[in-house]
Design brief:
The structure is a single chain. By secondary structure, this protein is α+β, with helices and mostly antiparallel strands. The chain folds into 2 domains: 1-36; 38-155, Nuclear Transport Factor 2, Chain: A, CATH 3.10.450. It is 34% helix and 24% strand. The chain contains 4 helices and 6 strands, in the order αααββββββα. A hairpin with a 4-residue loop joins β5 and β6. It comes from Merluccius polli (Benguela hake). Pfam families: Coa1 (PF08695). This is Cytochrome c oxidase assembly factor 1.
């Protein structure tokens, strides 16, 4: 049985469109799940609570961009979420570096590190800033017991 070249071309085009649509849908749903996650919301809430960081960005308006799925800096498992969130304001942009751990007692996420680094190199520690009282991050029962430095070698890809 012979199949015409036209039929093969149509089949190839149909398969390509179907595969592209499936990949696009999967990417959209994964980004939506990241945006709805507690560790993502905690980090953004902490950023919005820092007037100095928001002013440095030129926010509001604050624009949160999609996480780069293939970036090795973004690692999430059952107990820890290490995420690099791209954000921009009207002045500049940067990355919100976060580390959250899951509290087994409450099954909730606790923000352990939240640092905004602007393109110009300015860095804001969002957990212990002069304009922020030293209180637990949203969802935390205690303050972080360590202060992690933003070591770029650990975050760059």
């Amino acid at each position: 049985m012979r199949v015409s070249t036209t039929k093969l071309q149509q089949l190839t085009i149909f398969t390509t469109v179907l595969t592209g649509g499936g990949i696009g849908t999967m990417y959209y749903l994964m980004q939506k799940n990241f945006a709805k996650s507690e560790y993502h919301r905690l980090a953004l809430a902490r950023l919005e609570m820092s007037p100095a960081a928001m002013e440095g960005l030129g926010a509001p308006p604050l624009k949160v961009h999609n996480i780069h799925l293939f970036d090795r800096d973004n690692r999430i498992d059952q107990h820890i979420a290490k995420v690099k969130i791209p954000v921009t304001g009207s002045k500049t942009g940067g990355y919100l570096y976060t580390i959250s751990t899951k509290n087994p007692a409450t099954n909730g996420w606790q923000l352990k590190l939240a640092t905004l680094q602007l393109r110009e190199g300015q860095t804001f520690n969002l957990l212990n800033t002069p304009d922020q009282p030293s209180v637990p991050a949203l969802g935390q029962t205690e303050t972080p017991d360590y202060d992690m430095d933003l070591d770029k070698s650990k975050w760059s890809g």
